Task: structure prediction
Amino acid sequence: MEEVEVPSYFVCPITLDVMRDPVTLPTGITYDRHAIHRWLRLAASCPLTKLPVAPDCEPTPNHTLCRLIRSWCALHRPDDAVDHSMKSAPADCARLAALVSRLADAKNKGPSREALAALRELRDVAAEGERGRELVAAVPGSADALLDVFVSSATSAPENSAAALDVISSLRLPERCLARAVDRDGAALVGALVSTLQGHSGSDADAASRARAAVLLADLTACMSPSRAASLPEQAFVEAVRLLRADDGGMGASTAMATKAALRVLAGATAHGRNRVKAAEAGAVAVLVDMLLLVNGERRRAWCELALCALNRLCGCAEGRAALVAHGAGVAAVGAWVAGASMAASAKAVRVLRSIARHTATVAVVQEMAATGAVGKLCLVAASAPEEERQWCDERTRERARETLRLHARAWRSSPCLHPTLQALYPF
Result:
């Protein structure tokens, strides 16, 4: 059959596809509902005209255009026409607004069965797909109401808290929304997340809630100011470490999500002052080294890159360096990633070894670095040619490796643990 050209006014300017639910902004431009809702969550402006659009703006349904599109599809795209006629809105906007209003009232009245029922209905709407999530997110004040319910019921009504966290996670709140939540009462929100992470009933539902809490905590710490991030409670690091210890190498959805989120918390939060000591005292160094040792074909390389990033920052404090050299395989585990398949991991590993060689270099540690092959790997990096940069080494990493080798050149150059070929590569 000859392809029929789609009328231009049937096409959404964002998706460039035939609209299924056309709605019109106050600017006069019509878009597909799901596309413009997604756009307005990130930018409060009309995509075409660039005119500002109020955050609580509800686009007007264009029923005339919708009928024209359905008629055209019935004639030229019968399969699509069925989809149009069968597709209905996952929820009425007024009904969603009423549910959010009920949650806002629950903040003052306390946890109730009515609030739980509202949370479950919102969860069902969000579970219907992207369109449902966008409709829930588009209700003015929905994110704030959900976060308030989560915080207020974290300890008194775990069922309400878990349902609120489920909806929050499905909405994938943008950074500006999370930043606003931190400004409103970041300490209470972090406390509620830590309380959720402390739950360990062993059920699948509990594991899923803990994974969602870990992801939200990682997202929050990523948008915190340095002063706020530095005030994270010690228990947050204790729970992040506990999540990593609970990872036995399984790749279940909740386990994988929780592991990556815990690594993000440790890698991100330890960039700020006192947090390095908190994480080191919580046992982060040992569990991160263990993760490097357990890497296998199924383990995501990005996890080990995050682990090395966290170790690099933890070695910025004496407690972190002491914990690394005290681990029986700490130096060997880090050295194994030097000159490896990942440029990012290699760079972080070199920085960790430089910190150890500079600040914690006892005779035993210097000998261990040579015996475990870390010095040999540093020689390979230091002597690598510039054309090899794209593989695992850039100029800054090469210079850090040379700097590290200079620190103990007398002990390492003639070490019997260093292969003659590597001794010849020793650049100093």
Q: What stands out?
A: Residues 4 and 126 are 36 Å apart (CA to CA). Strands lie at 22-24, 30-32, 60-61. The chain has a mean pLDDT of 84.
